[in-house]
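anyone else get weird line breaks when pasting these?? whatever heres mine. first is seq + tokens for prot A
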Amino acid sequence: MNNKQKLELTWIGKDKRPKLEPRILLEDLEKSYHAKQRVTKNDLFDNRLIFGDNLLALKALEAEFTGKVKCVFIDPPYNTGSAFTHYDDGLEHSIWLSLMRDRLEIIRRLLSEDGSLWITIDDNECHYLKVLCDEIFGRRNFLSCSVWNHSVQSKGYRGKFSVHHNYILVYQKSSEFVLKDLPRQEEHNVNYSNPDNDPRGPWRAGDVRNSLVRPNLMYDIVTPSGKLIRHPPKGWRFSRETFEKELAEGKIKFSDDETRIIRKIYLADQEGRVPETIWFAKDVGTTREASAEVRAFVEGDFFDTPKPERLIKRVIELATNPGDLVLDSFAGSGTTGAVAHKMGRRWIMVELGEHCHTHIIPRLKKVIDGEDPGGITKAVGWQGGGGFRYFKLAPTLIVNDRWGNPIINPEYNAAMLAEALCKLEGFTYAPSEVFWWQHGHSSERDFIYVTTQNLSAERLQALSDEVGSERSLLVVCSAFRGVTAGEAALRWPNLTLKKIPKAVLARCEWGHDDYSLNVANLPMAKPDPVESSAAAEASRKTRSRKGSAASADQGSLFERNGGEDKQ
């Protein structure tokens, strides 16, 4: 194969990409919540809970948060097929991949260069998702496919495996990411001893063999009695200079028969422990434990596979520092935000389902008020504090009037319109208190002015004079009269004129509010004439457990039953 060729995952509809509208976010102060007083000087208040379609929400975050998110944890729908009994599997699988691709591409842009992505998934899509992430993040940035022992109780049907694991795919944005160590426990020190009374304390033997071929590390060693120790096939882990230095310091010693060397790894030098790729239930919890955590603050059982707080705690402690920003765009029952809050990290969560209001908000209020004793509360010494701001996605900017003509949405006031146009044109929305025509800026000398007025040539001349020759201004207006666009460019070189909505009509898919998986619109597959009675019974029992929130609306499973609510 040509080295320049690239292997890619293909699926039906891969070439189709949505033209997303960069919506603005509207805060609902009645749903935002903050502690009545500070608990510590490090309390965090500007966390964000966003209600709306998570693809549109991710797009809405791009302008402000590109390159600023340190850790993304997502728990997307596992695509188990239980919600697609009557639909063609190949098409359903392809839609799932497209939906994940669209979200992951924006997530990558939101991540900082030293950021990382953590995705929980099961066998149904794990291996396809791995290849998809390789395409988006690059294979060199793959870090781990860790196994989470999410269940310790045997279950299932005769002749089938009882599944006790899920996966956690981990990718870094770039090589700048630093994976942190886990805290050490006494049980991790059992292999350390001090048989030779080394003054540095307990030690264990470390591997002296190199994993890559390095010619400068391929040298033989002569022992004190004159024996020759040949180098390993790929060389030693250290240079000759390092070997001689550590030998003199007593950090390297020879075995009694002088047939091998021993390099000491000292317990005193081990501040933490390297994370492993198997995460046991006893360390990070199970879905049963997570269900109990959810039931502690809300009635009902709407989540089939919630994530325990201990699991999210491990992700956050491996990937972030206090004050870092954590994002979860499949919020589910809000575990990520609750854990990030208790651990002193800033957070953003996105959820479209009504459980945003029935589950997430009540949970976060208890966390903020210090009334959530469960999960990791005791482990991190959480006592309450901080807060969050609640946002919803603004409606679409462009709608059709009763004659079918595109117009600016009447729901937009002047401030909303200015902010929306700033986002569309790539400007930072920052209205000036001094200059009425400065609604935003892209640099120190480049500004934008948004108005629904019809501007005359006289008004444009006055505007040009006030802007001056040292600055430039994008003027977005309903219309201008008395001059053509070409004449305007010659008369006022410091102004650029655009008419709305005409200038933005082709930019986006206006009026598209839901990019979730709409199974109601999928074509029906041919029925399977030999469906077993056991499978039918399993399907019936699965549907009966979904709860009222899931059964009420199966039309948008990728969002409303996403995150921790697996179908």
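and prot B, same format (seq, then tokens)
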Amino acid sequence: MSRPAAKPAPPSSRHMNFQPKPKIKDFWSTLKRLLSYLGRRKGMLSLVMLMVAASSALGLLGPFLVGVAIDDFIMTRDKEGLIQLLFLLGVVYISHSLTTFLQSYWMAGIAQKTVYEMRTELFAHLHDLPLAFFDKRQHGELMSRVTNDIENISSTLNSSVIQVVSSVLTLTGAIVVMLYLSPLLTAVTLLIVPLLYMGMKWITSRTRRRFKEQQRHLGELNGFIEETVSSKHIVKMFSREEAIAQEFSERNMKLKEAGFWAQSYSGFIPKLMNMLNNLSFALVAGVGGLLALNGLVTVGVIVIFAEYSRQFTRPLNDLANQFNTLLSAIAGAERVFDIMDTEKEEREDQNKISLDHVDGEIKFKDVTFSYEDTPTLKEIDFRASPGEMVALVGPTGSGKTTIINLLARFYNPDSGAVYVDGHDTSNISRQELRKHMGFVLQDSFLFEGTIKENIRYGRLDATDEEVAEAARIANAHSFIMKLPDGYETKLLPEGSGISQGQRQLLAIARAVLADPAILILDEATSSIDTITEMYIQEALDRLMEGRTSVVIAHRLNTIQRADQILVLERGRIIERGSHHELIEKDGHYAQLIAASNSS
């Protein structure tokens, strides 16, 4: 190709940074942490980068060959040479398509494996967090972080990494070739860079905040939806459909407004790029035409510059768009890492006591506990011998459930100690401790799956015969066998499809199968009809036989056989003794019994 006879001195090259200093909290550390996940697959990532480099080079080679064709073959009417060059041009474009496909295909695999690891780590981390964390968070909002935010990161990794590297290589290659052909036309093409910088600075300063708001409102809306769906019966009972719809509309409006402004500002980017692209093309055509008339450049050079000006602005457009996408992903990544950085329950020391056998002795010694600076238990002191039944009685908020949570080490006492078989529970690993405990709670949660699988949750290695025997002990076998598929009957999510009483019987069967030394019953017979209560109470009597039991009950007739009854009020034990002893004292417990009998 003929080149211009004279070349003005090239302008000094300066590195242009199109990204204003981010205002997102820990932007760079979050980005670095995100990219560290990609670094775990350096081999495949290297192949992708090789394909990106090849694709960028081939993309630049195509327009260059077109210029060569014009100057060296079309202008000289060299038909044979033109045919050969067109064949080479076909090979270049086919190879460009192949390398583009390979880089996208391999990068999709890398991105999916990366977010798979992130989602797995996040889900595992959630299981290591203390219960206090979940007490303060909406479940739907947490679900949004595991699903929506991770998926947002996935989409960004799928496209942004390739686009950013490809754009940088294309920009670098285009500038090098343009400087070689005509520094003056290169300077004309670069005139759009300051305009682009100013436009991008104005847009990104607004989109960054909007995208973060959008992610926050989306998480809050998901939490509200999850809460509403879970409590649909309560909503209908109190005819609050209109109020719920109104609140949903308000939350949805906030998300809509945040999304509207985020997308509106980001929508300015392609419009700005199109305008600058047309401006660059016009400048190249106009200035190039004047230079050609003066013999400083050839027609082929003008064609190359016209195409490179598009290839020059397109990477800038891609970088701008990917930066916009990256902002959204960073906002999601911050929310994900916020969970992953939340302190886990303290790591269990490997030297913790191992309990191969538990007799079931329980002792609380001067236990005090506060929940977020709110005193909940004060100097709780009691002892239960193996096989005894201890009942906890008192108004709501008196600390009954908190005692159970401390016994199971869901929380640790602020002062004092809890003992099992003479061992401080803080010296026993949580898993080892809970292995010897069985729980039957007021709301018996059942998983989606078969009845057999739900009972076997108590001991995963149990045989079918052991599952059926546990169901017989729990008075559940007869109703199970009346179901269409017996033990293979599949339950709907949360056990819907069977009655509350039947769910309780299955929960008791699950506890029977676990064969614990210590049994915890929290309102196990509440909200149950009288007939079903008889079946449940009979099953509970069998279950408690020979086991240390800690029972919370509002129906006082169910705990009259308890060895100890602890009456709590405002976090303190105000009375203790057997049923007959407390009746004789004619104190608070006697008043509760009298009120219960009169109701």
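btw re prot B: The chain has two domains: 27-340, 362-598. The CA atoms of residues 102 and 490 lie 44 Å apart.
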